[in-house]
Amino acid sequence: MKKIGSAEIIARGVFLVSGPEISHAEDATSFVIQFNGELVMIDCGAGRSLKTILQNIENAGLDPRNLSTLILTHNHIDHIGAAPELRERFGCKILIHDLDAEAVEMGDPVRTAASWYGMDFPPTPVDRRLIGEEEILRFGEETLHCLHTPGHTPGSIVAYLDRDDQRILFGQDIHGPFVPAFSSDISQWRKSMEKLLALKADILCEGHFGIFQPHSRAEQYIQRYLRRNA
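User: That's the sequence. What structure does it adopt?
Assistant: Structure tokens below.
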């Protein structure tokens, strides 16, 4: 991967803009995808480092004012914390799976894991609830697929993009953890991991442990956690 400032180029028009190494230790990874002039963000960190994340976006040559859509892969604070401010400042639409939406809209301190981080998460409107097994989002001539992958939380999703003969999979928090307070379900998670393997991604963008490529490394990473949780 090439670096621009603190952002990292994952593929053409795909940038890693937050994570433990480039924004703040409490942040999960988040990504910005450029679709012509429109920007789509996948997750947004825990919230306290938003200034840095926005600077990373600008260092990649992008304008945060073009952010139209924020996709939340699940309802935990390290992935959603900056969502209220992003929505207020840029008018972006927040998308999350229906099964995780209530915790965001209620600002539930347990289900959002905000209490784990000693943080507050305010009740935040969700603009679109993703429903069912798969929804396809269209941006110009390209599509971004959102797949329901329950296990870590009931409404966990992944997203994938096919660009330049590569399949880029945003597969956040493959590793878990699996906690009763989150309504985790490890048997559902195993089925979800089989879905991910079937996608045969060339690049896996994981929520906390980085970028895995080519396909063989991405597959090995998923298989490692399946073995640990057999």
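DSSP finds six helices and 14 strands in the chain.
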